[in-house]
Write a structure and sequence with these properties.
Number of helices: 10
CATH class of the largest domain: Mainly Alpha
Order of helices and strands: HEEEEHEEEHEEEHEEHHHHHH
Helix content: 25-40%
Shape: globular
Distance between the termini: 68 Å
Number of domains: 3
Length: about 325
């Protein structure tokens, strides 16, 4: 139907976008783009041709042509993702994205947003993220949590942990997972960016299954979560790469650097559509403070889960 309408009006065709890098980019950190739309209406044709030639000249000067639609484009579901995540291209940059209708738990988006902001505060390696409104194929616009896809990169392989530029963050990652009851840390939820010199940088991703997605508050306070086996057993690559107790001690200190006020703000300052039960937020804060205070004793009881651990100076 749309094609027939376009033909009747003198169809407007879109030419490839010519992206011209402006160094720092626009206000969203993205390169600005020149979008040229050729319309066959005679009065506009000459101007459109001039703009098209200008855009082409810019591209030729860079010896490349970049297709980069402005705005947000839904590229479909993330392959093998159990979370319901989808790829959204935001101004041409790929993001792994979730919203209330595209996630596999009521608290998933809240968890992602909370974990991402805490990670940034603590200096943990999470991909850049953003929160955007988008409708796509949904019945109405929803708020999406979008984590930038790291490229070039992949899940870590057998030798990745020996090539890390940021291996000093491993102890903090373990303490972070233990504090937030992350029951879904596994190799698939780690990602490495690979560099030409053979080194790699580790990123932690996919934090939908922490806290109230792992269990209600009564369950989180049970012996099941006072034992690190539930947290660490699925990711021997991480626990095996931590070699010294000082790494874990440093991780504990990192978690304790968060103030009570900051924890409360990260809990309360989240889009309302991501909070299925606002009445539980006060109790959730109390639990996080309580668990933070007990992390050291939990880790001390679970040192056997770190098979290559030594004591003393690293």
């Amino acid at each position: 139907m749309r094609d027939k309408t376009n033909r009747a009006r003198g169809r407007a065709s879109t030419v490839p976008v010519a992206r011209r890098s402006l160094g720092q980019g626009d206000s969203h950190g993205c390169s600005q783009s020149v979008v040229v739309r050729l319309n066959k209406e005679p009065a506009r044709l000459s101007c459109a041709i001039i703009y098209y030639l200008l855009a082409s000249a810019i591209c030729m000067s860079q010896q490349k042509l970049v297709f980069a639609p402005r705005g947000i484009v839904d590229l479909g579901p993330v392959k093998n993702a159990g979370s319901g995540a989808r790829y959204l291209a935001i101004n041409g940059v790929h993001h792994i994205s979730k919203c209330k209708s595209h996630s596999n738990g009521a608290w998933v988006c809240f968890n992602e947003f909370f974990a991402a902001r805490v990670s940034v505060k603590l200096g943990l390696p999470v991909p850049p993220f953003r929160v955007v409104p988008f409708r796509g194929d949904l019945a109405s616009t929803e708020t999406w949590f979008c984590s930038r896809r790291i490229e070039p990169g992949d899940n870590p392989d057998a030798v990745s942990f020996g090539r890390l530029r940021n291996r000093d963050s491993l102890g903090s990652i373990a303490a972070f997972d233990l504090w937030l009851c992350n029951t879904d840390r596994k190799k698939l939820n780690l990602f490495v960016e690979r560099f030409p010199d053979g080194t790699e940088k580790l990123f932690i991703i996919d934090h939908g299954h922490i806290l109230l997605t792992s269990g209600n508050l009564a369950q989180l306070r049970s012996p099941e979560f006072r034992d690190g086996k539930r947290i660490f057993s699925a990711c021997p690559e991480l626990t095996g790469a931590i070699r010294n107790v000082n790494e874990l001690a440093s991780g504990l200190a990192t978690i304790h650097s968060l103030t009570d006020q900051e924890i409360g703000e990260y809990i309360e300052d989240s889009p309302s559509e991501w909070i299925p039960d606002g009445g539980v937020l006060k109790d959730l804060k109390e639990y996080l403070l309580e668990r933070r205070d007990g992390l050291q004793s939990i880790l001390e009881a679970d040192l056997g889960l770190f098979p290559n651990l030594t004591r003393g100076v690293a």
